[in-house]
Amino acid sequence: MLFLVSILAALQAGAPPRPVADTGRTAVPAADSADAHPDSTRAARDSAEHKHALRHAHKRIPLTSALLATAYRDPAARTLIARARAARFATASSLLSYDATARERISAWFRVHHLGLRRLVYRSETATRVRWRRGTGVWVDVLGARTAIPMAFHGVRVLDDALDESPIPYFPGREGLLNLAGMHTVTKGDDDALFMHPLDEGAEAYYRYASGDSVELSLPDGHQIRLREVTVTARRPRWDLLVGSLWFDVASGQLVRAVFRPSMPFDVLHFLKEQQPDDYHDIPRMARAALSPLAFTITAFTVEYGLRGERWWLPRLQTVQGEAQAGVLRMPFSVEQTFGYASVNGTDSLPPIVIAARDSAHHIRSDSLVGPIRVRADSAAATMLARRDSTDRSRGDAHHRHGADNDPDLKALDCPVGDTLIRTRSRYDGQLRVAYRVPCDTAALAHSAELPPSIFDGGETIFDTGERDALVHSLSMTLQPGWGPLPLELHYGIDRGMLRYNRVEGLSAGIDAEEQFGKGLAAEATLRIGSADLQPNAQVELRRSNARTTYQLGIYRRLNPASDWGDPFSVGSSLDALLFGRDEGFYYRGWGAELSGAHDAGLAAHLTWRLFAERESSAGVETQFSLPNALNGVEFLQNIAAARATESGLAGTFTRSFGTNPFGWRTTATVRGEAATGTFDYTRGSLEATLSHPIGSHLAGAITGSAGASGGTVPPQRLWYLGGTQTLRGLDPGSVLGDAYWLTRMELGGSSVKIRPVLFADLGWAGDRHSWRAPGRPASDVGVGASVMDGLIRFDVARSIHPDQGWRVQLYMGTAF
């Protein structure tokens, strides 16, 4: 989660300036900006000065008549956008207050590579009552809150830092898809939006618009509303520009639903190198290489509006989905928000909100804790501090007595049960004053009826994930930014795996050239050569992507891995080969062409496939150099003797995970299939599944079952090879092999996912498929190990039992337990 937060901080710090066209229209009013506290304004100004240089990284594009002439594909789109802007201004001007209930869920997982098991690393849920009134600000009453960080603690806690970031459903002048994205309507002189909103004045300099479909929408009261779509595409690929679909109420011109995604991923290291070179060079080169690629991809924003008071369309559902990547680690994330309105433009008044001033001696911040009573004036700052100091010991005693309502799994707030904390702060660069009212009863907050029954529940009934998914599917491959080639990027050395080591190539160095063209298209060319085999390898590919689905067409000459498990070309595998003399890969050479694809079917499912035609040949062991070889003469395993063949066919892998609760049932399943014809005609397929669950209160167990078989005549390079860290851990890779196999892995460990001691045993067989029913004695091993961070890092000491007896000590990444 820290990685995700750091990326968001970099994004926010580097937000480029936004165009404000001189259209003569009055800016959308920012309702509370005039009443913001001077200190808040000063802090905002300081922040703006700090970011000034970065914000001029992209020059502001003026909206010229030439750009305006090419912005709209048809008059209907132009009319809809103009009416939508007028409707937004009317809403912002006429909305005086609302009383709403807001619910939010933020989730983050991690996995190793695309097909790795998805593990929950962070989840936070809040439910709040949000009351806003123009000129006063927002009062937020926290109704429920809890956080789960399985790798830090068991169960849920109420974390103090997660309580004062409640989403604000709507604030005039700051219409935003999500606080996470910082996306909002721009007012004159306001440059802090993270993305350029397509409905901002002057956005035609960045976007093109076209009218699309129309539908009839039935409201609960029986009224029919006609909606019309406008598709929006960025003129050129840029991470802060969007592509998407907007749906408007034809009668009123107001926005009813929208779905967006950035026009290209955000490359963090490239951004730092170009815009913040000092910060880039402060990162050690080895760290930059280990983190590369360091990218942030948002696959979809969605927002659904609801009609209130037969006049105002206000947000009722907002979501974002995406993935952060650092080297081999990937962190999928999602944010879900729902809003229900009790009243709009009601007559109830709200108490005034006073933002605490900074005291010269004590430096009280605007988000400081102000105790269980409200501070009504800035002059009360010293009194407030004295009260807070005098109550610290009594609060600590009360906290010790009450705990968290006798629930040791909850972290209590720093106040006695029965009290209510009130915090005040400013948001949106001092334009909005917010007061948070937080009950000190953490048990009541964590178990609030306003939240789902469990923090690990799917939450479909509250967050309406089905409606979100339907919107996301409309982000088709045809919604792409315009043509606009970006500068060529070169990667070499240890960047992006361009340096690797194995027993065939030795030290293999490569150089990669990549260029984004727009229209979702990119081209990449890689050239590498090994120090041991001196064989040149090259690959050229053209790809198209919409962040969720990618298609690639390429030609290549390369060294291929023969095994179905693990990645022998990863940094970890290279270090194993060089430092420990252990290369678990089997290899063969291939040259040919392929059409391939990858699709993320939601956060928990991933599909890859390839249609190929290639010429295959053998690759021999060309080096024995490693640290163990230099010290003790230890040699690498022999490579397989691949058959010469010309093959064409189709192969694919599908992975699906079930269950989020690391302390409950979790399952991951992988299906592999392949069919080819040519020198050899064969088919092959396998199914693998892992199931884990706690055993009592202190233990947990997991079992993996996997089986595969082949048909036809299978070349050596397409047999099943068992042995090594991913299959039979006590055996050398390839100890058992054949055109059919089965294996099972059983593990018993502690209930904690932070650091878990593990006992394990593996059993498996591979051989002739005709011997399936009478396989003979299977291969087996036992061992002990330790799993760190829910299997992110794994250390094992394994003892093989059959067919050979020996010890293997191994450190690796990405296990299911």
Average pLDDT rating = 82
- Residues in helix, %: 10-25%
Classify the secondary structure makeup into a structural class.
alpha+beta
Estimate the strand proportion.
35-45%
Please give the number of β-strands. 32
Can you lay out the helices and strands and say which pair or pack?
Layout: H1 2-13, H2 38-55, H3 65-69, H4 75-94, E1 97-112, E2 119-133, E3 137-148, E4 207-218, E5 224-234, E6 242-249, E7 255-262, E8 266-267, H5 268-275, H6 277-282, H7 285-291, E9 294-308, E10 312-326, E11 329-344, H8 381-402, E12 420-427, E13 432-439, H9 442-446, H10 460-463, H11 465-472, E14 489-492, E15 499-502, E16 506-518, E17 521-530, E18 536-545, E19 549-561, H12 571-580, E20 587-600, E21 605-618, H13 627-632, E22 645-658, E23 666-678, E24 682-695, E25 699-712, E26 720-722, E27 736-738, E28 740-750, E29 755-767, E30 779-788, E31 793-802, E32 806-813
Parallel strand pairs: 3-13
Antiparallel strand pairs: 1-2, 1-11, 2-3, 4-5, 5-6, 6-7, 7-9, 8-9, 9-10, 10-11, 12-13, 14-16, 15-16, 16-17, 17-18, 18-19, 19-20, 20-21, 21-22, 22-23, 23-24, 24-25, 25-28, 26-27, 28-29, 29-30, 30-31, 31-32
